[in-house]
Amino acid sequence: MSLRAVRRRLACALLLAASAGALAGTGFTPLALPGEGGALLQALERPARAAPERLRLIVLPGSGCAGMGAIADRYFAALLHARVLVLHKRGVRADATTAAHECPPDFVQQDAHPQWQADALAAARHWLAERPGSTPLVLLGISEGAELLAPLAARLQPAALVLVAGSGLDPVEAGRLQAQRLGAAGAWEALARAQAGSGADTEVLEGRSLRYWRALWRWPVQEPLLAGPWPLVQVWGEHDALVPQQAYARFRALAQARGAPYCAVALPGADHGLQSPGRDGLQWLWGRLEQWARAPAQPWCAVFRQIP
Predict the structure, then answer these.
(1) Using CA atoms, how far apart are residues 227 and 152, in angstroms rounded to an integer?
(2) Coil, helix or strand at residue 272
(3) Cystine design at 247: which of 133, 137, 167, 287 (Cβ 3.0–4.6 Å)?
(4) CATH number of the CATH domain containing 212
(5) Whether residue 17 has pLDDT greater than 50
(6) Strands 208-209 and 137-142: what pairing?
(7) pTM, 2 dp
(8) What's the domain range around 134?
(9) How many domains does the chain have?
(10) Which InterPro entries does the entry mention (predicted)?
(11) Alpha helix (H) ranges present in 36-112?
(12) What is the CA radius of gyration of the chain?
């Protein structure tokens, strides 16, 4: 299987998981927010579905160019007392359902972690200034979105971080482990050589520009998460086909020495989208966050110990 096919499966899995097992709801509306340099990002916003508001949640979705507009109400159905902001990448329409392998060329050329981080920070700051509140702020990253949590947290100072299907390792290491798992180590090594070579940043390999791959190869995730002062919960499925269990296990072992609270939740039978037969791990997670928000002074990991 090619690395591009892996990315395609990742985007499809997230969309399918979001549609599975959740109750229909209403409330998300599109919102334009300024990114870096004033470029407008398409976001989604929803007030708390039930009073009182106890939590503010900023969400960074996974890879690809599909928006969460069509699925957001179902995806976050059980998150009742939270004000939620979903920040899409530059060039992503909130209502887009574009498959990952069909992303337009302009999106492919501008997609890179440093740009995403700069845009997300500018947009989040604007939203927080326009919607001031005293309830705890939590940052949540889904899959690739989890790779931006630490640099954003350093500037936004949230109460806690949530990694959903994110390994916690540097993406180049997580990618290497997944390539080995799929028998695609040779393709990964070829990509490593290409990003280190003299090709133009605009050259496209495996559905991404060399600009994207060069940034990813140098993007730190592990050390900033381990050193950060924020409580952290990492939730993944034991049957995740897109991130190897070896990657989760490695970060979990390293995080035991973390100075701030860290809790790991491996959901039995669940896939990359936290779905398993008859169980929706996402709605379980929202319920746990709701419980914590009722008494945020309680130990961070206490509410995550009852694994479904």
Answers:
(1) 14
(2) coil
(3) 167
(4) 3.40.50.1820
(5) no
(6) unpaired
(7) 0.91
(8) 3-304
(9) 1
(10) AB_hydrolase_fold (IPR029058)
(11) 72-75, 105-110
(12) 18
